[in-house]
From TrEMBL:
Residues 236-260 are annotated as: Disordered. GO terms for molecular function: chromatin DNA binding; transcription coactivator activity. InterPro entries: GRAM, PH-like_dom_sf, WBP2-like. This is WW domain-binding protein 2-like. Residues 37-127 form the GRAM domain. It comes from the Eukaryota. One of its GO terms (cellular component) is nucleus. Pfam families: GRAM.
Length: 260
């Protein structure tokens, strides 16, 4: 939702209380839009946090240096498994005021060394968990972290609690075991301007302030996404649910897996 507002030096800038759930180097982000700074493909690193997804480009000479995807700005998220070519994550993202660009864009995220399905399932689960705290009110005005003073963050400041499902959904750290270099993560003192997977001090009015549902993980480690009613009450797990349609607060999953 915001362009070039989440990076500093060769790393990314987090809000206070924002934790990095998954990190992957070697991804390609492709946008289909009219903005010349975004259009086309960029190689870099991807961070899934408790509040958003952040892409950091490997090339500081290009127009797109970083891109922030708060969960409430993502829609039509799905996983594609083409017969030929690598699996990828697809979706749409909308801009917000002061986000550095306008309108909406379709995006595709490809992983050089695989893992798109596992990452995509974790992304969907995180987005669903955060959507329960959004309520019906629009998010507050966007305040990019780079407008505040920031400093290098110690790993303990952005590392989530231990365990395969610290926030009620499975994190495939077996597929993504790497951690970002400690000198490439910065943090501001301000909290995120929108709720995350565990809510937050700025949760939207009318949001359900309850704990997320317990993890539904099979013995082989497969995580299943939950679907939610408008009240936030979990329904039965949606097995092999590879996509959802529509903007928050409700992320209704739907299968988009391709078969031969």
């Amino acid at each position: 939702m915001s362009l070039n507002t989440s990076h500093a030096a060769n790393g990314v800038v987090l809000y206070a209380g924002e934790f990095i759930l998954l990190y992957c180097d070697g991804v390609t982000l492709t946008f289909d839009c009219d903005d010349p700074n975004m259009k086309g493909s960029n190689k870099g690193r991807i961070y899934l946090t408790t509040h958003r997804m952040i892409f950091r480009s490997n090339h500081d000479s290009k127009g797109l240096l970083s891109f922030s995807f708060p969960f409430h700005t993502i829609s039509e998220l799905g996983l594609e498994q083409p017969i030929f070519g690598a699996n990828y994550i697809k979706g749409k993202v909308k801009a917000e005021v002061s986000g550095g660009w306008y309108g909406a864009a379709s995006f595709k995220l490809t992983f050089k060394d695989g893992g798109a399905i596992e990452y995509g399932q974790a992304l969907m689960a995180a987005a669903q968990a955060a959507s329960r705290y959004m309520g019906q009110a629009p998010p507050p005005p966007y305040s990019p972290p780079t407008q505040f003073p920031y400093a290098n963050a110690t790993p303990g400041a952005y590392t989530p609690p231990p365990g395969p499902a610290p926030y009620g959904f499975f994190l495939p750290t077996n597929v993504f075991p790497e951690q970002p270099p400690a000198n490439q993560v910065y943090m501001v003192e301000q909290p995120p301007p929108y709720p995350g997977v565990m809510g937050g001090a700025r949760s939207m009015p009318g949001a359900a302030q309850t704990d997320p549902p317990p993890a539904y993980v099979t013995p082989n480690g497969t995580a299943y996404a939950y679907t939610f009613r408008s009240s936030g009450t979990p329904l039965t797990p949606a097995a092999n649910s590879y996509g959802y349609q529509g903007p928050p607060p409700a992320y209704a999953t739907g299968e988009s897996k391709k078969t031969a």
